[in-house]
Amino acid sequence: MSEAIFESVGQALYVSYLMEILPVYPASIMQVIFDDQNKRNQIWDDVKKDRTINFIGLSALEVRGQCALIRRAVDRNLDVHEIAVIKSYYGHQKTKSDGVRGFVEYLTWLLPIKNKDAILALGWSVFVTRKQRDGLSIAAISKEYGLDRRLARDAQMRIINDGQLLFSRAMNKLRPEFEISGIVGDISY
After folding, report:
1. In this predicted model, what pLDDT tens digit does every residue of 112-137 receive, in sequence order?
2. What pTM was estimated for this model as a whole?
3. Measuring CA to CA, which residue among 187, 177, 183 is closest to residue 12?
4. How many whole angstroms separate alpha carbon 83 and alpha carbon 64?
5. Confidence of residue 165 (pLDDT cuts 50, 70, 90)
6. What single string gives the DSSP state of each residue in 61-92?
């Protein structure tokens, strides 16, 4: 591949995990969308346009294939705990669930709380979107599981801090491979 597809590792992961849950459209519908986007870009070739995703020349099936290869690279190059964190951040549905469960299971012995359901609730409170956080506040989790709020907050902070550390380590491991393979790089021109 002569030109990068994505501008950053985070963008590559975001799109790849999103593509995992999107329905497979008939090639004709997706191809029309990609072709339309490609035509728009080519019309303005004489004007410098910044773009951050480059699907030019790739069919809808090839885009899906590239995204599957990116997800496979995560599984192949990262430690099990780093994989869990990446899936917790970028995954959807079952993939996200597997990631959150895997990550909090890893942290269980490090946390001052021993109730596995409470730890899982704290994990979800970290990795869900703002819209999904209803009922996942420290106060609500503490009340539901009979926890001291300070202890619950300390456990949540450990989940956040360890998650950020493993996330950063995972991104640093993936970046060189994605750059060498041409998945990530400078695509604006």
Report:
1. 899 999 999 999 999 988 888 888 89
2. 0.82
3. 183
4. 20
5. very high
6. HHHHHHHHHHHHHHHHHS-HHHHHHHHHHH--
